[in-house]
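[step 3/7] inverse_fold.run input=structure_tokens len=279
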């Protein structure tokens, strides 16, 4: 509470109130709770890689958790890598990536963003998860339940390209098995602008790569929410839906609802596999 943390020359394999496991290390825990309130967390400049800001990042590292609960309340998080790269970064979310295949098992994971502001400014953000899940190829995530809640929050991302990103949803180029994933957006303002979008899930399931898969169920509710995506072209873009470029997926049940909400997608070139409140 009332913490201000500022880093100005890049962060590599770093944890700020979260968990960052790298280089084939393993991590396990039970009843993990991560909380930030009335706090400012800012990273600017340099290269940002494998950073956990109140989130969980596993790079080439297996892990097993019985329960993970994440809370961002009245918090301002800024991740800025001007002219550089932003890779494998979790803000109240979960990222699984790296050159060595690994499996992350979670009985349940839940994150709540309330009255918060998240800003991402980078040349090429890759595998960025904000209250969501991003799984790289050859990796596997298994979970019984995931719950993502975003209320009265603004999230902005400005970049020359956005790749393998998730906001309150699941993106995978690997394998994801989540028995029940639920997302609830209430008065969320989300803006993604610039370049191309290759894999973005907003309260949905986005899959890329013929070797990737998803097995599970999804329920999403959007209320008083405004989502804007401005891009040159988009592929595997899911907004409260399921979008797949070439992957296999099995959905046991699907419950997608929206009330008093707008979704604006502006693509100057042809886009593929775009799903809004559908499959």
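[step 3/7] decode complete -> sequence:
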């Amino acid at each position: 509470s009332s913490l201000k943390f500022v880093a100005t020359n890049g962060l590599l394999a770093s944890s700020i109130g979260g968990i960052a496991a790298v280089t084939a290390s393993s991590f396990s825990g039970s009843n993990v709770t991560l909380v930030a309130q009335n706090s400012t967390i800012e990273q600017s400049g340099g290269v940002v890689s494998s950073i956990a800001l109140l989130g969980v990042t596993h790079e080439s590292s297996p892990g097993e958790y019985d329960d993970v609960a994440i809370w961002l309340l009245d918090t301002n998080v800024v991740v800025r890598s001007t002219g550089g790269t932003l890779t494998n970064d979790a803000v109240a979310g979960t990222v699984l990536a790296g050159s060595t295949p690994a499996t992350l098992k979670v009985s349940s994971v839940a994150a709540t963003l309330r009255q918060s502001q998240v800003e991402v400014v980078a040349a090429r953000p890759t595998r960025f998860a904000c209250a969501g899940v991003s799984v790289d190829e050859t990796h596997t995530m298994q979970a019984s339940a995931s719950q993502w809640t975003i209320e009265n929050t603004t999230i902005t991302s400005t970049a020359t390209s956005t790749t393998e990103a998730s906001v309150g949803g699941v993106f995978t180029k690997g394998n994801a098995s989540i028995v029940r994933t639920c997302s609830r957006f209430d008065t969320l303002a989300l803006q993604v602008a610039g370049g191309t979008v290759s894999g973005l899930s907003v309260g949905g399931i986005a899959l890329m790569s013929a070797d990737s898969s998803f097995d599970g169920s999804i329920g999403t509710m959007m209320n008083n929410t405004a989502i804007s995506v401005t891009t040159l072209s988009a592929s595997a873009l899911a907004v409260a839906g399921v979008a797949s470029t070439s992957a296999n997926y099995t959905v046991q049940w699907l419950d997608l609802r929206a009330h008093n909400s707008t979704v604006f997608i502006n693509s100057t070139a042809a886009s593929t596999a775009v799903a809004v409140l559908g499959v």
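[step 4/7] annotate
The chain has a mean pLDDT of 91.
The radius of gyration is 16 Å.
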